[in-house]
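U., I forgot to send this yesterday:
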Amino acid sequence: MKVSKKQSRQKANGLSEQPDNEDAANWNLRLYVAGQTPRSMTAFKNLNDICEQYLKGKYHIEVVDLMENPTLARGDQILAIPTLVRKLPQPIRKIIGDLSNTERVLVGLDIQPR
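Result:
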């Protein structure tokens, strides 16, 4: 989860680069973390692995580091970190934790039925 200075500024502002083909990003996911802690790094890796396996080419992940800009937590009412917010497809869904339980994440994101 090492990022360049440009990416750090984008993350601090809650922004990230959009994919070249915006239609391909059917799943808009936002991961709230607090710095590059082991738990945050694990959540990012787990999310990336899940997306590559189940949503390949159809997702966009935005990482928001609340250590750099804590006010961004208000918009999605973030109370714990790491928290994953599914912005699209609607409805908005939230999953708290390091996303290590793949089945729980798949059900929580409505990728897999309960």
